[in-house]
Design a protein that fits this description.
The complex is a heterodimer. Chain A has a two-stranded antiparallel ribbon with strand order 1-2. Helix content of chain A is 72%, strand content 3%. Chain A is globular, with a radius of gyration of 22 Å. Chain A contains 22 helices and 2 strands. The two termini of chain A are 22 Å apart. In chain A, β1 and β2 (75-81) form a beta hairpin. Chain B has helices spanning 12-30, 37-57, 74-100, 106-123, 128-146, 153-184, 189-199, 204-221, 229-236, 239-246, 248-264, 269-292, 297-317, 321-348, 364-367, 369-383, 389-403, 407-433, 447-465, 468-476; strands at residues 63-65, 70-72. Chain B is built from 20 helices and 2 strands. The chains are: A mainly alpha, B mainly alpha. The A-B interface holds A 68-73, 110, 113, 135, 138-140, 142-143, 145-146, 149-150, 153-154, 160-161, 164-165, 168-169, 172-173, 176-177, 179-180, 183-184, 186-187 and B 365, 369, 380, 385-387, 391, 395, 398-399, 402-403, 407, 410-411, 414-415, 417-418, 421-422, 425-426, 428-429, 432-433, 467-468, 471-472, 475.
Chain lengths: 531, 479
């Protein structure tokens, strides 16, 4: 274990940076921006230490920090990462840099508050991924709402107030029931440690209720059909940076929640309700895919495309329960979860980049309507190249990161059920249809109007943003092995966890999952020593 | 029985306050109009001395003195400190408002100080009689404070309503006390508790008395269905008076409930628990729902108070040390939040203008980003969003309710807190998302007010990040 509190540093460095940016104010034009960029880059570099020091051979929590926070309730400042959360933390710190850069000249109203909000949010989101104490997790999870609420509301579009209050209340609604579930589990386990929760034996009724409480929280965040309606509103009204963070990181927190809470804590409820999640995921993929097809607004289109792609993530996660119930097919389960994880990281890059592309156009023309564009490639050749590249990766072109995750999930789904896989695979057609059709109307064709005719191509700042993300997409698409290696041990451990029945002995007759004894030994992680 | 001067030692804070009030009363007569600020200085000095004395005589074992009428224990130490501190902030915020309107007179401070004295007596009461005396001292001063702007018609109307309904509440309480006295033969909490333990629930007079006590407590807290006075008084009274009666008295009301229900009638928990559940659910429900419809921010905060009272009751009704501690934590935190919220309204007011409507908060972030941030912290804290202390307070009461296996009650509470979040967010919307009215002047405030508001706002954040210290103090009070 590492003695140096690296995770604490990654969480609090950007928050301190945010306070510094706030203190610097807007008196001198660029000071706050440079401070913000410095802290964002610094945080990213520090977070790389997690990757370098990570031991990918074990599923145990690493970089663990543990000290008392509220001793009377056994609430701890308990941090640690495994192969699932570590890549997501690096994604977070990575994307934040581009958000800061993208807002450089565009934000004119109180830029210091804008930059500070993103830095503080960076720290909080890292905290969500790193927290191993349920209350600490919840504090970060909810605290995240405050900066995002302000970002959309202050720097957003004309309908921003409606969008941001809807966003806040939707998410708040989802999460308060999770809080009740967390407190309930505290009385069962005597601690708020998530690892202790994973070792709990809960009856079927309790599991189902807890599963539903978690589902409310995470489904809103992902977002899954039918609680997705806040997302198109929030995306359309948010400033470019807000959309990027929403799509690239915040949606992933919902997916992460399923892996960290729902599946290992309530495997039996998950197994018996997996059909529901799978059905909702397939609806998201198919129905939302068609909805995306008819959008007139570029941001809305990408927002719906995000929902469809996140449907893949949840499909990959919960298809596992169909696979493990068939002993002959056990190998596919790891592939499903890993596919979902790769899809999350890849979608972080691609959706972030697409929103940046829309931002580039919006900054010049101040319209997001597809109909206002046409023939952009004639005046902005570099931009056209990037836009087409990201559109292709959004459609899942082999060689880009978008392909890897989707392919793995479809492959895993085939093991479970042929027809589900067929439905899921239609996304390759649908995503190609809605993204490429948009690109065709925006980028290609004749120059449509005077505004397009006078467009300037990318400046250095924008080229840096899109270039770096394009490199990331290509790297992950061509050589995903490093990412897989990092999470492999953790995902295997997770699959073991979700394959065992965690019902108490009295209800063992209801077990759908295998029931090896005793559960504590299977819980491959170091459970807290004493309580 | 010979009088022992040692009896006076534990009530030194109260004595200090009483002396200050008398001194202000006399000194005020000799002050010229331009020197009236001296009243303010004297009052703050008195409060600071009282805080210091509370610390000096506090700590140690529980002691009962004045023939069993007063008590000093860990709870009274903490609550006295909190009441004095919150009142100190209230006086600091009120000064510019009073000065602008030529009301910086001794009477305001005398009434305010005596109200605080009444609260302290409630906190240290060990018999029904003392607690009633403290309550009436506090209430009479507050009635007068509400009517303080004597040319204001709404103020006079509010004071009248407050007086009539307050008297009704006190009457109920007194009636309940008389029944308890009839059933147990004592007005001291200790012997009452003993008698209750012997008789149990068999004595119907006791149960009847409890019903009236709970109604009285409900009146004083402003819990539904005894809440009718709250919105009208918050709206009609001058803002400094609302600041004083909306913050620290909630702590005193908590002490009232704890002393009577826990110290005296713990044996009848099963009886009053059900009543408090009803009051809690109704308060959270009605308070949060009706607050949404308000455009006057004072009225909105009144309904918000009602909903917070519901949450305090959640902790109280648990009937356990854990529950009482969480309710105490909540009451103290609520008083700090309320002081901050009304403080901001006073800061926004100026000569000839009272900030009363949500519109008056428009574009505060453009006018003064620091106060905007403080108000946002207060609002997020009231909504119960981490990392502010409002979340910790809600977490603790929910925890104590779930401990009782009343999961449904916890679900009701969180459902209403979602509804509540909406109107707090709307305030933040006015502060951050709207631009200021074109004629809005620059905010001018004194350094003292700014420092106090900074301390007030940041303490909500600091307590949210490090709640353990205050929590352990609260828990130490109910070992």
């Amino acid at each position: 274990m590492n003695e140096f509190p690296l995770l604490t540093l990654v969480i609090w460095l950007p928050i301190i940076g945010g306070v510094a940016v706030l203190a610097s104010g807007d008196k001198s034009a660029n000071l706050s921006k440079w401070i913000a960029l410095t802290f964002a880059v610094l945080t990213f570099l520090v977070s790389l230490g997690l990757w370098i020091g990570f031991d990918s051979s074990t599923a145990q929590m690493q970089f663990v920090e543990r000290s008392a926070w509220i001793p009377t309730f056994n609430i701890e400042y308990f941090l640690g990462v495994d192969g699932i959360s570590m890549p997501l933390i690096i994604l977070t710190t990575f994307i934040t840099i581009f958000v800061i850069v993208a807002g450089w000249e565009v934000i004119t109203y109180k830029p210091s508050q804008y930059m500070a909000a993103f830095l503080i949010m960076n720290g909080i989101m890292v905290g969500v991924f790193a927290a191993l104490d349920a209350i600490l997790f919840y504090v970060f999870w909810e605290a995240m709402l405050i900066p995002m609420f302000l970002i959309i509301g202050v720097w957003g579009g004309p309908n921003r107030v409606y969008a941001t209050i809807k966003f806040f209340l939707y998410t708040f609604f989802g999460s308060v029931f999770m809080l009740v579930a967390l407190i309930y589990m505290y009385f069962q386990s005597g601690s708020f440690s998530i690892l202790d929760f994973q070792g709990l034996q809960l009856g079927m009724t309790a599991q189902i209720l807890i599963f539903i409480a978690f589902l409310l929280a995470f489904a809103v965040k992902v977002p899954m059909f039918p609680v997705h309606t806040w997302l198109p509103d929030a995306h359309v009204e948010a400033p470019t940076g807000g959309s990027v963070i929403l799509a690239a990181i915040m949606l992933k927190i919902g997916g992460y929640g399923f892996l960290r809470f729902s599946m290992p804590i309530t495997p039996d409820a998950s197994a018996s309700l997996a059909w529901l999640i799978i059905a909702l995921s397939l609806i998201a993929i198919l129905y939302i895919g068609f909805v995306a097809l008819v959008q007139q607004d570029m941001k809305k289109l990408i927002a719906y495309s995000s929902i469809a792609h996140m449907g893949f993530v949840t499909l990959g996660f919960f298809i596992v329960f169909s696979i493990i119930q068939n002993p002959a097919l056990s190998s596919g389960s790891v592939m499903g979860i890993e596919g979902g994880m790769v899809q999350m990281i890849s979608h972080g890059f691609i959706s972030g980049a697409l929103f940046l592309c829309v931002g580039v156009l919006y900054d010049r023309v101040h319209s997001r309507e597809i109909a206002d564009y046409g023939g952009v490639v004639n005046t902005m050749p570099w931009f056209g190249a990037f836009m087409v590249f990201f559109a292709m990766s959004n459609a899942g072109l082999p060689g880009t990161s978008g392909f890897v995750g989707e392919f793995m999930v479809i492959l895993a789904t085939f093991r479970a059920d042929f027809w589900w896989a067929v439905l899921a695979a239609t996304t390759l057609i649908l995503a190609a249809a809605f993204t490429l059709w948009m690109v065709k109307r925006v980028v290609f064709g004749e120059v449509k109007n005077e505004k397009v005719a006078v467009l300037q191509d990318l400046n250095a700042r924008e080229t840096f943003n899109l270039g770096a993300l394009a490199a990331a997409v290509l790297a992950l698409g061509l050589w995903p092995a490093p990412l897989m290696n990092v999470m492999h041990a953790t995902v295997e451990n997770l699959v073991t966890q979700v394959s065992v029945c965690k019902l108490p002995a009295a209800e063992s007759a209801d077990c759908v999952l295998a029931r090896p004894e005793p559960i504590a030994e299977l819980n491959g992680r170091p459970v807290a020593a004493t309580h | 029985m010979p009088f022992d001067a040692a009896n006076l030692l534990p009530i030194l804070p109260e004595i200090a306050l009483l002396i200050t009030a008398c001194v202000v009363l006399v000194v005020d007569l000799y002050l010229k109009e331009k020197d009236k600020g001296f009243n303010h200085t004297l009052s703050l000095l008195g409060l600071v001395v009282a805080i210091a004395l509370t610390g000096a005589v506090g700590g140690g074992e529980r002691e009962i003195f004045f023939d069993g009428n007063l008590v000093r224990d860990a709870m009274s130490d903490l609550l006295k400190g909190a009441i004095l501190l919150v009142s100190l902030f209230a006086f600091i915020y009120a000064r510019p408002w009073l000065k602008d309107r030529g009301m910086l007179v001794g009477e305001f401070y005398v009434l305010g100080l005596l109200a605080v004295l009444g609260m302290l007596i409630m906190v240290s009461a060990n018999s029904f009689l003392t607690i009633y005396l403290g309550l009436e001292l506090q209430a009479l001063c507050l009635y007068a404070l509400v009517a303080f702007d004597r040319d204001s018609k709404t103020g006079a109307e509010a004071a009248m309503k407050y007086f009539v309904l307050g008297a009704l509440g006190s009457g109920m309480l007194l009636y309940g006390i008389s029944m308890i006295y009839g059933a147990t033969g004592s007005i001291e909490f200790g012997p009452v508790a003993q008698a209750v333990a012997e008789q149990g629930m068999s004595n119907k007079v006791l149960v009847f008395g409890i019903a009236f006590l709970v109604i009285g407590i409900g009146f004083k807290f402003g819990a539904v269905p005894f809440h009718m006075w709250v919105p009208d008084i918050y709206e009609g009274a001058p803002t400094p008076a609302v600041l004083i009666l909306g913050s620290a008295p909630k702590i005193a009301a908590f002490a009232l409930a704890i002393r009577m229900l826990a110290d005296g009638l713990q044996g009848l928990l099963a009886d009053w628990q059900g009543m408090l559940i009803i009051l809690a659910v109704l308060s959270m429900g009605l308070g949060n729902l009706v607050a949404i419809a308000q455009t006057n921010i004072k009225r909105m905060l009144a309904y918000s108070t009602i909903s917070h009272v519901g949450f305090i009751f959640l902790g109280l009704l648990a009937g356990s040390a854990q529950g009482y501690a969480s309710a105490m934590f909540y009451a103290i935190v609520y008083a700090v939040m309320a002081a901050g919220a009304f403080g901001i309204l006073l800061i926004l007011s100026r000569e000839g203008f009272d900030a009363e409507n949500l519109d008056d908060l428009k574009g505060l972030n453009d006018r003064d980003p620091w106060y905007a941030a403080m108000m946002a912290i207060v609002m997020f804290s009231m909504a119960g969003v981490p990392p502010t202390v409002g979340f910790m307070a809600k977490l603790l009461v929910l925890e104590s309710v779930i401990r009782l296996d009343l999961v449904w009650l916890a679900l009701v509470a969180v459902a209403f807190s979602i509804i509540g979040a909406f109107y707090y967010l709307r305030v933040v919307k006015f502060i951050y998302f709207d631009r200021p009215a074109p004629n809005a002047p620059v905010l001018v405030t004194t350094g003292g007010v700014r420092a106090a508001m900074t301390l007030n706002g940041l303490s909500l954040l600091a307590l949210g990040l490090f709640p353990a210290a205050l929590l352990s103090l609260c828990q130490a009070a109910f070992v």
